[in-house]
Design a protein that fits this description.
alpha+beta; Immunoglobulin-like; 7-stranded mixed beta sheet; 5-stranded mixed beta sheet; 12 strands; elongated
């Protein structure tokens, strides 16, 4: 991968300008993140930018050169109105962009598979491979109106608008939403991933540095969208255990009644912690059947599939007769 400190000359200046444009509020998170997946994505941005600059920089320089050389006051410039073709020039014009497109295509194809959010991690960072017995931290994410709910099934707790994970431990997110499609995004951790009602997406990532990082909703979802932010804490193993204990000590139980109250639209909610979670609550949220008497989506789809399978044999003779009739004609 290409790092900023290795850049030289005009390419360095152009890349620096790109960094300034991506910096936002003075913080170059995209190109200097705290997580390995985000770092690989940042390297991909730099590499793709440099490949495109192979064309962009010469074009800009030649445009300025031609404007200066063939200015009206330069009587020494060669005037050749009958010129119409150069084989060498045509080869350069077509070959260089074609090779850049091939390189970008290969780079994108490789990165698309390597950085697939559903793909389990195989390394902690560029220098350390993931241990064979490493267990990812499971986090179930629910995008609500307009807040984030996080379940920790292994630890048996839940939080609102606060997320934490141990440094250098893989994290496997499972994401859904209550009513409106949204996008989960922690720039220091990984790229954004959609959360949709009645569906589940996944994201595998790791945080490599301790600290407090910004998380947000990156997909517009209504009037409370701008306040739909949270803090992501990168902690040591001991600090993460203390954080879990604090939630269990200070929080309250999260049952269906508490969830339905929480699911009501609200804006800029403070951090909340829940000491326990009713069994299968996340799966009920995912299948849209938290309320009593409401059928779960996976059960309804299973019944529809069984009915379809039962009806198929009865329809087979009709299809067979139609096919035989067509053949006879």
């Amino acid at each position: 991968m290409i790092h900023m400190k290795k850049l030289r000359g005009p390419a360095w200046l152009a890349a620096a300008a790109a960094v300034a444009g991506l910096a936002g509020c003075g913080k170059t998170v995209v190109l200097n993140p705290a997580g390995d997946i985000a770092a690989q994505q940042g390297d991909l941005v730099v590499t793709a930018t440099l490949l495109m600059l192979i064309v962009i920089v010469p074009v800009i320089l030649l445009t300025l050169l031609f404007a200066w050389k063939y200015r009206q006051g330069n009587a020494d410039a060669k005037y050749d109105p009958d010129w119409h073709h150069s084989t060498v020039l045509e080869l350069v014009i077509w070959t260089v962009p074609l090779m850049i497109i091939i390189a970008l295509g290969a780079l994108t194809w490789i990165a698309t598979h390597k950085l697939d959010p559903y793909r389990p991690l195989d390394r902690i960072d560029a220098q350390r491979a993931l241990a064979a017995d490493a267990r990812p931290l499971e986090v179930e994410v629910v995008a609500m109106d307009w807040k984030w709910l996080f379940f920790y099934p292994e630890q048996g707790i839940a939080t609102v608008n606060e997320l934490a994970a141990p440094v250098d431990r893989p994290i496997r997110f499972k994401l859904t939403a209550t009513s409106t499609m949204n996008a989960f995004y922690v720039p220091d951790l990984a790229g954004m991933i959609y959360a949709m009602p009645g569906m589940q997406t996944e994201l595998n990532a790791v945080i490599n540095k301790p600290g407090v990082f910004q998380g947000l909703a990156s997909h517009y979802s209504g009037k409370g969208f701008s306040g739909m932010t949270f803090k992501f804490h990168g902690l040591s193993d001991a600090e993460f255990a203390q954080w879990i204990d604090k939630a269990k000590a200070e929080g309250k139980p999260l049952d269906k009644a508490a969830y339905l109250q929480l699911a009501r639209p609200s804006e800029r909610d403070p951090v909340q912690r829940f000491s326990s979670v009713e069994p299968d609550l996340y799966h009920r949220v995912l299948n849209r059947c938290v309320e009593d008497g409401q059928p779960c989506m996976h059960e309804t789809m299973a019944k529809d599939a069984r009915r379809g399978a039962a009806a198929a044999p009865a329809e087979a003779p009709a299809h067979a007769q139609h096919g035989a009739g067509g053949h006879h004609q």
